[in-house]
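Weekly sync notes, structure subgroup
Attendees: PM, AL, DS (notes)

Item 1: joint prediction request from the bench team. They want all two components modeled as one assembly rather than separately. Inputs as received:
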Amino acid sequence: MDLFLQQTLSGLATGAIYACIALSVVMIYQAIDHFNFAQGEMAMFSAFITWQLIDWGANYWVAFFVCIVVSFIGGMAIERIVFAPIHNAPILSHIVVFIALFQIFNATAGFIWEFTIKEFPSPFPDKMPLDIRMIGAHEVGIVGVTLIMLALIYLFFRFTPIGLAMRAAAAAPDSARLVGINVGWMLALGWGLAAAIGAVAGMMIAPIVFLEPNMMLGILLYGFAGAVVGGLTSPLGAVLGGFLMGVLENLAGTYIIGSELKLTFALVVIVTILIFKPSGLLGRVVVQRV
Amino acid sequence: MAFLEVANLEAFYGPIQALHGISFSLEQGGITTILGANGAGKTTTLRSICGMVKTGGEISFDGESIAGKATEAIVRHGVAHVPEGRGTFVRVTTEENLKLGAFSRRDSKAVQQDMERVYGYFPRLKERRNQQAGTLSGGEQQMLAVGRALMLHPRLMLLDEPSFGLAPLIVQELFGILRTINKDEGVSMLLVEQNASLALELADHAYLLETGRVVMSGTADEISADESVRESYLGY
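Output from the run, pasted for the record:
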């Protein structure tokens, strides 16, 4: 029983990482209706920016917020420069660009900062209060940060005109133009927000896995799995899916399949969900009368 | 100069030319209809006016040239397009669809009043305000499309086949409401219809398109009285 509790809690801790990255996956999916395979690498790159700022002597929180702003602008710039010109191209062209971005960010980070692992500071205290040992303070911090981001995203999409316009522009671009929405800028905004959320995820993840250009490889797969499990259209679903992936991965690894097959497990979950419940746990089923 | 003045309008879909230099005009507060068979270029004409296809020629609205401008910029001049196929935002609610119609406006109090006015015209939409718009019936979605256009507080409405796929009773109701909007609020309308008799009843002026060219124009009464129009389009 102790082992079960231990594994569940540590599953929740890793789940928070997946939830974080799943959130940025859902964000970009809301905005452009596609997966962005480079999402993890963008988050990694953002974490490196923060690391560099701290290395130059900046305060953690200054670096934290500067990184979010830079990532937001960078995300918008990627959309405007790379994706706007191929806006009407078939989806395969987009996928090729996603893969190219993945390589570019990965290689550039390696070129600038090298492939050796670096320590990344955590903003949270070293020890949990009350001498709790089951789960670390940083893990609890990630859960908190994830939930705060979730709340902000929910409020943004649910209650602001821009959030509504973003959803409209993604789902029906022609109709969106006809009500005066500048669809191009909505897409850019979606990219900016996704990059900013990814930046927070990267900065939360880096203290655990250590900072290096390949740090997101496995995590992104679990993040995708979490997003698919939760339903690609639902931020809350993504967070729940992320936690669920973390716990399932840990329990399956402990009791059933052993640690070698853990990554395969994520892929099996993605395929299973897509076959049996494509809309995920909380994804909105689009009903349309014709 | 007329309220909407279109001169030598040409439109292209890639290498294919759909409009071969058509000219027409619309007076402020008037309803003009464009008639023609399938493929005559009616929808293309409307899409050209709001910048959704590549065009040549001149389009001026209220004395200002709008040719070549981006769709969202033209909309901000007060041109509301009710598109072919209704263009419903299916994933959001009825009320959110209406809110989106007022996206370019900043006068939130007046927007609220306009929302109530739209619900006044279409009580059914109020009943279904929190329902996902994709689940509305065809007639309700057509009402929603008109309602969404009204939320812009437009000066000109472009209506593309508003009667398409609707039951005769609902068509009567909808056209009655369009007439009211035109009379009471002075909204000018450019109407494209397959149903010629219905369109000529509502409109004051009419243009007849054939394969991208204007072949006849006049007041609605003149066009209705024309022998060949009666044979080809009105069927009596």
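Discussion: Chain B is about 40% helix and 25% strand.
Action: AL to compare against the crosslinking data before next sync.
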